[in-house]
């Protein structure tokens, strides 16, 4: 055994920013709870792609799917598939639309996650991007005039990566001729239902009662804090078979989704994380993170450190700073001081994701650091 090399692996990671001290402020990652880490270890060599061999994983997956379905208020005819996260869910959604519904085109807005365009490229599905205004809002007409017939589809984001907005399909549902819709709720799926249950369930009720074929992807490894990789996509029963692939050498004879061998702990640790916090605990964390988001934006505006461009609907804060300082310089200076925020593309500034490890005291320190950078530049 090369002990030096193993030691080096630990040593080299010392330079990474730490979640716990508030250094990681833009990434949608957060430390999982201790119970989930034990589960990772327990399942480390088991393959979720072979749930007949590792029978416990089949049972665990069933429980996770039904608990998530219940939390989101989805109907029983929507089948859940565990994925490696939002990117895989977006690819699967468009693939299932193409295979079972003959979809050839996807319409999305410019604040959709880049993986939607990646999926359309990989699947050879033509894409049309609708421009949103500075606050990330689309004009309903801009979408409906791009949707013509049954070979078109639409992606709506619940919790946009850039601005934390929620794209509401109710504004256009009547004009869409029931084309299939994928709801990318990778971040919003386990935050928005607690922050604004009325709007969340209103959107879902409208989608369900419209008779539209819709899919929804939600990530466990984002705000919930389950170990990476872990997500889920729900698809209607009728299009579910398109995501099943024959495999002759495993006993189930088929596999679902993109990956073959995949981490067994994905489902088990997500379930353990849900059990650890409980829905009440998760709800409290989401509401607190959201309060901190609004506080941060208000405080920054009040102190002249930037301009909020919208009122986010999930815990993501985008601060426009380009009138005060060149963005790359601000990012660089903050990083030098140990604050790793992300680039805010649409807001022309910086973006902070209020993951559960981000405390108000971290945000106070970040505001102070922005103030210092602005004064010294
Ligand atoms: C809305 C949205 N969709 C999809 C993704 C992709 O998720 P992942 O990186 O887990 O594949 C992200 C990631 O930030 C996201 O914010």
Q: Return the CATH topology of the largest domain.
A: Aspartate Aminotransferase, domain 2
Q: If you average the pLDDT, what whole number results?
A: 96
Largest sheet: 7 strands, mixed
How is the largest sheet built, in terms of strand order? 1-7-6-5-4-2-3
Q: So what's the CATH class of the largest domain?
A: Alpha Beta
Count of extended strands: 13
The gross shape turns out to be: globular
- CATH homology group of the largest domain: Type I PLP-dependent aspartate aminotransferase-like (Major domain)
Order of helices and strands: HHHEHEHEHEEHHEEEEHEEHEEH
Strand pairing plus helix content: what structural class?
alpha/beta
Evaluate the radius of gyration.
Answer: 21 Å
Bound molecules: pyridoxal-5'-phosphate
């Amino acid at each position: 055994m090369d002990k030096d090399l193993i030691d080096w692996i630990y040593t080299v990671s010392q330079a990474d920013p730490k979640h716990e001290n508030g250094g990681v402020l833009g990434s949608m990652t957060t430390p999982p709870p201790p119970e989930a880490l034990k589960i990772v270890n327990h399942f480390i060599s088991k393959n979720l792609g072979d749930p007949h061999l590792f029978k416990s994983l089949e049972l665990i997956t069933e429980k996770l799917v039904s608990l998530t379905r219940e939390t989101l208020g989805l109907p029983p005819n929507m089948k859940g598939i565990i994925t490696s996260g939002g990117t895989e869910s977006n690819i699967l959604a468009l693939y299932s639309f193409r295979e079972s519904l003959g979809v050839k085109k996807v319409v999305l807005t410019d604040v959709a996650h880049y993986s939607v365009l990646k999926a359309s490229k990989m699947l050879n599905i033509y894409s049309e991007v609708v421009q949103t205004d500075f606050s990330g809002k689309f004009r309903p007409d801009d979408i409906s005039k791009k949707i013509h017939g049954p070979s078109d589809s639409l992606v709506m984001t619940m919790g946009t990566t850039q601005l934390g907005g929620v794209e509401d399909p109710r504004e256009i549902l009547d004009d869409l001729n029931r084309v299939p819709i994928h709801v990318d709720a990778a971040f919003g799926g386990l935050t928005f239902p607690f922050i604004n249950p009325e709007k969340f369930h209103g959107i879902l009720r409208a989608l369900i009662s419209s008779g539209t074929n819709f899919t929804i992807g939600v990530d466990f490894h984002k705000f919930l804090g389950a170990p990476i990789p872990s997500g889920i996509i729900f698809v209607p029963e009728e299009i579910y078979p398109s995501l099943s692939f024959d495999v002759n050498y495993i006993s189930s004879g088929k596999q679902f989704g993109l990956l073959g061998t995949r981490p067994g702990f994905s489902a088990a640790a997500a379930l353990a994380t849900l059990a650890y916090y409980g829905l009440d605990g998760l709800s409290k964390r989401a509401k607190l993170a959201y309060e901190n988001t609004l506080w941060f934006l208000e405080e920054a505006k009040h102190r002249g450190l930037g301009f909020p461009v919208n009122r986010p609907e999930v815990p993501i804060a985008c601060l426009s700073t380009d009138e005060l300082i060149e963005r790359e310089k601000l990012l660089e200076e903050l990083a030098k001081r140990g604050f790793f925020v992300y680039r805010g593309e649409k807001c022309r500034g910086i973006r902070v994701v209020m993951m559960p490890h981000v405390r108000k005291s971290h945000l106070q320190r970040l505001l102070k650091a922005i103030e210092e950078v602005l004064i010294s530049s």
